[in-house]
Design a protein that fits this description.
By secondary structure, this protein is an alpha/beta fold. It has helices spanning 2-10, 19-46, 68-75, 78-81, 96-109, 119-132, 135-144, 160-173, 190-194, 197-207, 251-261, and strands at residues 86-89, 114-118, 147-153, 178-183, 212-216, 221-224.
Length: 266
């Protein structure tokens, strides 16, 4: 506010304004600065894999079948306010982590506390916390997040302890906060991949029903959304950022192959 006041004193363009107008400008400048600092802190705490990823950078002009209204509707943050989940699945290099990071940024910009974590690191941190006595504090910290993004979900087989730890995390957040899952496996394969039937039932029952989901592969790519959202189906591009002309790991050949074989489903 002091900087804004000095600016007003040094500029003649403010001289014609009344005291109330000038004071209002000072308050607005201070409020904007504080909100910006809060946003920077939320993004710093969230630690997305791609800090610059943004839903505004999705290229809708290229004919990739990505529906603007679907992305923008999720970009409003309504699904986070209503404690819905979002599930993204597809092969390596298709852009899941980039899109997940973009939703992290979107959530932070709407004022939500968010965090991005890879599943292998999450289960490791949970195991370590059991040993050092911070397990309960870590579960409480994760439960308080309004958006938790778990990338590389079910990338490797789970031990019995890891299954139970993930169930605790998911249970604490069920119907209380939003969880975004990014995985190479579609949700229909999660039950078998988790392993133990009773725990798999519990985890899937808390994540899948009512969630928005995006399934992406070389044959098809579509959005499915719960009844609360507008029903729409579309496919994702190989890489969602405007500034990237090829898939992250598979090169131009992967982009060409995906464009030839991916069919728009209506």
């Amino acid at each position: 506010m002091a900087t804004a006041l000095d600016q007003q004193r040094s500029s003649s363009q403010y001289a014609a304004l009344s005291f109330d107008d000038r004071f209002g400008l000072l308050v607005e400048t201070e409020w904007t600065a504080r909100e910006q600092r809060k946003l920077v802190q939320r993004l710093r705490n969230a630690k997305p894999r791609y800090p610059s990823a943004s839903l505004e950078d999705v290229d809708f002009t290229t004919p990739r079948g990505l529906a603007r209204d679907v992305v923008l509707s999720l970009g409003t943050g309504a699904w986070i306010r209503e404690h819905h989940n979002l599930l993204i699945s597809g092969p390596t290099g298709i852009g899941k982590s980039w899109l997940a990071s973009a939703f992290v940024q979107s959530g932070c910009r709407h004022g939500f506390a968010a965090a991005y974590v890879r599943a292998p690191r999450l289960v490791h941190d949970l195991a370590v916390s059991r040993g050092d006595g911070s397990y309960a504090r870590l579960l409480t910290k994760l439960a308080k997040l309004e958006l938790l993004v778990i990338d590389d979900w079910l990338l490797a087989p789970l031990t019995d302890g890891e299954r139970r730890d993930l169930l605790e995390v998911i249970e604490d957040r069920s119907e209380r906060a939003s969880t975004l899952i990014a995985s190479q496996l579609p949700p229909t394969a999660w039950h078998a991949a988790i392993g133990e039937p009773s725990i798999a039932d519990a985890i899937c029952d808390r994540l899948i029903p009512g969630a928005s989901s995006a399934v992406v592969d070389e044959r098809k790519s579509l959005w499915t959304v719960p009844p609360a959202w507008k029903s729409h189906k579309t496919r994702f591009p190989p890489r969602l950022g405007r500034r990237t002309g090829r898939a992250a790991h598979n090169g131009p050949q992967a982009v060409s192959r995906l464009r030839r074989t991916t069919k728009h489903i209506r």
